User: Fold these one by one.
Assistant:
Number 1:
Amino acid sequence: MNNIKLLPRLMTFATVAQKGSFTDAAVHLGVSKSSISQQISALESELGARLLNRTTREVSLTALGFKLLDRCTMLQDQLSLLFNDLNDATISPSGRFSITFPHSLQSEIIIPAIKQLLSEYPNLEPVLIADDKPLDLVENGLDVAIHVGELPDSGYRALPVGSLVEIFCATPLYLSKNGSILSKDELVTHNWITTAWQKAKTSVTHIDSNEREDLKLNVFSKCNTLPAAIEMTLNHLGIALIPDIVARPLIKSGQLTHIVKNLQGPQWPVYTVHAYQNEKPIHIARFHQIVCRLFEKM
């Protein structure tokens, strides 16, 4: 198998998979739809396996296609990085790289992203500031902020990353002592441990119908940081609304239980925010890219 010859076909496949259609991929790549189809057919023939399921309306991935897309996405990142490096061959990022972010993203997103970034740019000196309150970039001498929630008006540049959804959780011991929580009527009677941004009257979404509703919850304790709210919850003191990205590992380990699964709390957009008006430095562009990839895998 000629691996070099497969490279453009793999990139074409990745674009089709990401765009969800041959037509959109052709427009994005500036080639004809028939050329896209020929590239995909040649790739599938070379591999001896189907990568895409095609209908008149949409394109979907086979099991092998899903696996290959993950690798191709990494390859796209590396190619992008390679050409950025060629364009900035005389520049090797070094020195202080300061970033602020909410506690909810620290373990699963920020630390892994910094680890990857330092493997590529070892002369950077990261300064990490975890704070559930947004910090102004200029006032605090920051290079980047990972912002969760709607953006305030400012002159900063914001790049979309993904979104967080809050889900209701409690410990198995709390539920054992206080009874199962299966409905919204049961939910509002329990002690709710809140964070700084959560209010007694909170908006929830019914997953089955996608309808939104305001619930007045029984505020028991207020915490100014998410880690404090989680620690109180883990000590069986009440229920909490926790971002899914933080809750999932705790649910998987058995420390928390996802309750009232047909309801979810607010969904928040996530952005990378920087103050550069023109071309941003290569390490900031790469950091944003890594953060986006980590979000996609969650």
Number 2:
Amino acid sequence: MKTKLDIAKNWLPRYTGTQLKQFGDFMLITNFHNYVTKFADTFGCDVYGEGMPMQTSTNNDGLTIINFGIGSANAATIMDLLIAKNPKGVLFLGKCGGLKRSTELGHFILPIAAVRGEGTGQDYMPPEVPALPSFKLHKFVSEKIIQHKQEYRSGVIYTTNRRLWEWDDDFRNYLRKIGVIGIDMETATIFIVGYANQIARGALLLVSDLPMIQEGIKTAESDKIVTDKFVDLHLKIGIEAMTELGSKGEQIKHFVY
């Protein structure tokens, strides 16, 4: 294995228990095992990779979903490994903390960009390169959200490696100062590593907590409420957007900034 592609072709099946030919051309990636099982139940397809670092399922339309785990390191890993398949489009279905008064639990956010506060992306691109989604992919997602008569917000997401920061007043004040709309641990990494690997990418984020106020910090109980109320729609919109993108056969071109 002398090249990055050689390694990715060997490691993607090793991490997922899924052979390369079993992956579709369009993909959903997520942090949550239940998204994969819900997908598989919807389409009556198998789940691969149980007991392995990542799980996958692929339907008859050639749409694959992958649970890659939590955090920017795992996000970079999956966006590197996916070069083995060279997907035509990848949409991240993640959850984020809402940082503005205009964001409420259950709202969707389509990020126009992400602040690279996680550090992982520095191994891929210089810090001055912005972490951006592919516009055309987000266009399809936006249309699907509107068809479902849902509101969504657009803005900049802050991506961090810090899992526990809610107690840190200095960091909270910093987030207010830079005006970001939400915070998570993966979006900027997915965008910048996707750009480095020339993979069309996007993110549809579900606001799962409101960490700037004490009563809004996520708990096991509050996360269950959000999951029960909003996850099915989150997944449905992602499935419909990527399926339509695939059926229309539109190629998402890559441009250098």
Number 3:
Amino acid sequence: MLIDTHCHLDAAEFACDRDEVIRMASEAGVGRIIVPSVERGNFQAVADLAARHPCVRYTLGIHPIYVDRASDEDLVILREAVARAVADPSFIGIGEIGLDHFIPATDRDRQERFFVEQLRLARDFELPVILHVRRAQDAVLKQCRRMAVRGGIAHAFNGSEQQASQFIDLGFALGFGGAMTYERALQIRRLALAFDRQAYVLETDSPDIAPAWRYKQRNAPFELPRIASVFADLRKQDLGTVIGFTHANALRVLPRLSLPSN
């Protein structure tokens, strides 16, 4: 079964055809779609989406890009939401959380404080995390080691091979998606070949990071089979083999994915 381990299905870009997109993904062989929250305002939206669609699972967290408009009360509300959500089999972890050092105007100290508090939350509830890691690999690694979280996924990974190896050693899988489909993405393509099969999961990050054949268009989870095919071709492996091991890896790093939905 193909698993889209990162897809913002609740985004406004899907407002007009969300149900159709999910249907098309299912028909394409995508059996699970993980929808991370990004701020307090969509905690309920991602949970509701999972309640309506058996293929959807969700995580709760505050994205580093949204930290500047979040309040300390949001962290309290997040903890309360997680405490309630652990009874919901569609809830699978904490995310999307992390650090983003690409955008210069963001408050890095505030990002780090929110990140650490959310890692503490994940540790307290023994939950995996879905990490946003943009030009901040070493800083994210430092806090993940310090807080001793149980692993998860380093989403849209684009660091060095050495950094990737350190995430893997901490129990994380590397998320690969549309960026890998561009021939000029040499670093990402090298990373796709660098590790054993246990290192990888697949994602779309829809509606963002569209694959090469949808350049500057909306991405969608039904693109995942073709993304998987590119990954298989790069690794010179059978597509069925790739689907099998990326599915197994997703279940390993996100154990609650194995729970039956309501």
